[in-house]
Amino acid sequence: MSENLFAKHKATLDGALAAIHSRDYFSPWSENPSPRAYGETAAADGEAAFQAHLNKPFDLDMPGISGRVGGEVSPYGIELNVQYPTVDMDKLLPAMDDARKAWRDQGVEGRTGICLEILDRLNKRSFEIAHAVMHTSGQGFMMAFQAGGPHAQDRALEAVVYGYETMASVPAQATWTKPQGKHDPLVMEKKFTACGRGVGLVIGCSTFPTWNTYPGLFASLVTGNPVLVKAHPAAVLPAAITVQVAQDVLKEQGLPPHIVSLFVDADPSQPETMALAQRPEVKLVDFTGNTAFGDWLEQNCPQALVYTEKAGANTIVIDSTDDFKGMVRNLAFTLSLYSGQMCTTTQDIFVPKDGIETDLGHKSFDEVVEAIATGVSKFLSDPDRAAMVLGAIQSEATAQRIEDSRGLGTVVRDSEKLTHPQFENARVRSPLIMTIDADKEDIWGQELFGPISFIVRTESRDHSIELARDVVKKHGAITMGCYSSDDVQLDKIEEAALDACVALSINLTGGVFVNQSAAFSDFHGTGGNPAANASLADHAFVANRFRFVQSRRHPK
Amino acid sequence: MSENLFAKHKATLDGALAAIHSRDYFSPWSENPSPRAYGETAAADGEAAFQAHLNKPFDLDMPGISGRVGGEVSPYGIELNVQYPTVDMDKLLPAMDDARKAWRDQGVEGRTGICLEILDRLNKRSFEIAHAVMHTSGQGFMMAFQAGGPHAQDRALEAVVYGYETMASVPAQATWTKPQGKHDPLVMEKKFTACGRGVGLVIGCSTFPTWNTYPGLFASLVTGNPVLVKAHPAAVLPAAITVQVAQDVLKEQGLPPHIVSLFVDADPSQPETMALAQRPEVKLVDFTGNTAFGDWLEQNCPQALVYTEKAGANTIVIDSTDDFKGMVRNLAFTLSLYSGQMCTTTQDIFVPKDGIETDLGHKSFDEVVEAIATGVSKFLSDPDRAAMVLGAIQSEATAQRIEDSRGLGTVVRDSEKLTHPQFENARVRSPLIMTIDADKEDIWGQELFGPISFIVRTESRDHSIELARDVVKKHGAITMGCYSSDDVQLDKIEEAALDACVALSINLTGGVFVNQSAAFSDFHGTGGNPAANASLADHAFVANRFRFVQSRRHPK
């Protein structure tokens, strides 16, 4: 308890607090895996630390450890063979619930300081985590470093500062003085304590094992709830390292380390997780994954608040452009990055059947399609760049989905099996692009997770907007994009996005992509369409994870 | 649109914003129904305005009006015979949903200004509303004025400022500038729009037809949601006046008046309300009432967010006191006020079987009981004061419950039928107080709504605390009180209240009562025990009623 962690990290906290209100760029950490930012030996040390985990038991400090399990296989073809502890939930969950009092009594600043210290240490282990993310999710190294390291830490910090701000909005103590005319005023001394709700369960996914886990983990933790991280069985290591770092800090502060715990199920099917999510100790559930399970959680865990990010059909409306080449370049990267395995990747691109107006003159529907297909192929023609940007396909199911989808439309760019320059057994696939008619919404309206996209032939510019709006309302979306050089159409598109409650990116032709969102500035998901019931992050994401409990008395 | 209502009411807004953070006393309105505060003719004008509603149709501006209904009978024995419009929900709800865009486009300050103007006008009609509240709820006039008028307006204002603060925490426009080393920075212009979720449904109760309706109404309204007020069939008039005032302001601002609408069901049973709460347009439900219906709403409206205040068993632990007479006086008022028909009134008072230590020496269990029973009788011995404080029993069911409860314990103070000095047919009853053994928790643990309380004979001081904590965890509570002059016991009680997540009032012997909470300072309900899933008011109460929808583009 010696070090005041809140004071230590106050500058980071203040910077983040300013950023969530200004929505300007902010990050306390470098997204560049450079020796200058992380130290001369950081890259080598991180890789060695990752290697040291392989083929070994992974130790965590939890009551009720019952055995070991682990069967991760890297999408790059390496068996990790890390053995994680399994736990008897009848022992762990009551112990976590008991730890609530100690965690509550740390107070708002105490918990905030500990969360910030955990994040600081996670940042220092970004290279190790990057390799763990790469070899579970299949992301290329640079993306695994950025999205799995500093960008995930940014989203965690964002959740921490939202939680801090909401809790700190009410003072721990206050005096209430009510005038009574000529009589003495009524005076009360009041105490307000932010109390967590119970145990938080965070159900992670295999594609972003830190980025999608951290917001729920840190939002629940800072607001006073012990957190059980239920890692995806195919992507445990990044979560396990995270839990280990958190436990180290908790132990140093004299707190029960199992305030942050890990659950790994032997079987990737869901019955065990379903039972866990319905446990009486579990009062908060954060979930990233498929719509069916997300819907089940929302409807079958009445004892808990459930925050979900599920599937959707992300769309781009191409109406017109004054930078045709820039648009094509931007789309080529968007469709290629991590082989479309982002919840933000565009699936449906709407183009009017009569084509569009551009700075290079009128382009027919077929010319637009050809430009996009060729743009992707050209972008991926350098094998090193292709390997770095595409990464590997996380699961065999996604690889199979590509095979199964070829008949759904007219293939204009086929997916190919590529050989990775470093990992000969890597599961690498390039994007599959098809054209399809607008009336086949039953096909293009469903999410087809992976590098599969449709260019949808619409009746008109307005028809494109209508389709884009309606598919979001029906199936949900995390992102919507558009290209238009016509202000009248842009106004219509903005209104459609507001109506469908989806974030809109307009005319991206440079270094910002529709599938990337910046913490502290961009809301990830709106929580207002079927793709997600929450947003990363806002006050709604944190405010109900704790309750204010007050006492009042007259002064002595 | 001529007047800037936000600027007009900015000082009120700023005062309320400061108060929710300082938690000091605040109210922009006088709780004193005095000519100086409200004008020389306000009392007479208000009563005349109330009288003018009786035996007449009540007009509201809504699409789909289909007929008239109304059968309110005052607990003071007067038939109101006000006839309210009934509405075809297939016409009204789609029209309300259509009005969302116009309401959204008012922006954060526009909506806030309109809400503040509505509140200002409601305050000016506090006398009229007081009579309407009195003759529906049965509250005495003074309480009807305060709780139905300025205190209800305070809670509404509190919801408005929480909504405003949360929405205004993100700017409508922002510039994001990300450095790129030696290259030009990436720059994005971003817009953020607070968008309501859909139609808000507010289900009112018969005992506090404005105080319990306003928070949900104004929280949903300010955050961009048209609101349908479903008044309790026995207490429509206060809600109808409120909706009329809101519609006047909306019309003056060129907005569809049905952004605030009223639903009155002919039949006090629930099927019509159940269907309404499940309508696809309804995305928010606020409910005050019985646990069974509250639980049903929480579990059967997956399309909506549901905020409930339900029943509970409020408790007081009597451990010891250094002001025995002050304690008894305070309890006498608490048990008498509005005949115990407050969701905050104490039902169970825990006293150790071996008695307590006081400033007047040791008091045996029987002496404590006798003092409380006599204290209530003495307090009510003045018929005018009794009539003013007790008010009338709102429903025949509550009156019957008193009759049915006599056999549940040992009666130490019987309930009497009293005659009201002004209203000969008023349904007036004094409090029923019984003693009961601690092991009969099946009896004292259930809420018995009305002037029915138990003094529970416990094994010891610690046993009292244990029982008080456990009953809140099991059945919920809005309030907990305690009397102790022993700091060790007080610490245990405070820990029990934190553990059970219930607001605690300590050693109240003066002019503050456990059943009263002050807006901007006291949280009404914690939202963390079974009595309520929300608190009035905090960020959690408002933050999820709207979503931020953003668009971003590079600057031109």
Automatic annotation (TrEMBL), chains A, B:
GO cellular component terms attached to this protein's record: cytoplasmic side of plasma membrane
What Pfam families does the record tag this protein with?
A: Aldedh (PF00171)
The segment(s) forming the Aldehyde dehydrogenase domain are 88-471
Any single GO molecular-function term of the entry would be: L-glutamate gamma-semialdehyde dehydrogenase activity
Record keywords = NAD, Oxidoreductase
Note the superkingdom of the native organism.
Bacteria
GO BP terms in the entry: L-proline catabolic process to L-glutamate
NCBIfam families, sorted = PaaN_2 (TIGR02288)
Protein name, UniProt field: Phenylacetic acid degradation protein PaaN
The source organism is Marinobacterium marinum
Its gene is paaN
